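The methods section describes the discrete structure representation at length, but only in general terms. What matters is that the chain and its backbone geometry are given together, residue for residue. Nothing conveys this as quickly as seeing an actual entry. For illustration, here is how one protein appears when written out as sequence plus structure tokens:
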Amino acid sequence: MTQIYRKRLSDLGLKDAFGKLDLGRCAASILDMAAPLREIYELVPLPSSADTARAYVSRLCWLPAGNLHPILHLFAIVWLFETWQKFFAAYWLETSKVNQSDLESSSVSGDKKLQNIRKAYHEEFD
């Protein structure tokens, strides 16, 4: 998950030329997204200050996925991808890279499936 989040942050231009996160821009973006959601009692723990937003994005990018509450993952998906479909396409594209050897050893339908995932990803993001 961290790899998917990092890739998306880069795609959104939230990393500098050296690949370092622009924590100030990330925090501002997170706070804009979280503010209306924090009106819901159960979502009050979402980031509410620049410090908590910077800590949140750092945790997204560096901690194992299991160390983050599922609500915080859902918030990251909304923040970074806006829709489930965009996240799902990015997830499958990233995991297909990891499992490329499995796809290469499978049938042609696996290759077709990967092409469809890539096409969906590019349609969503281009």
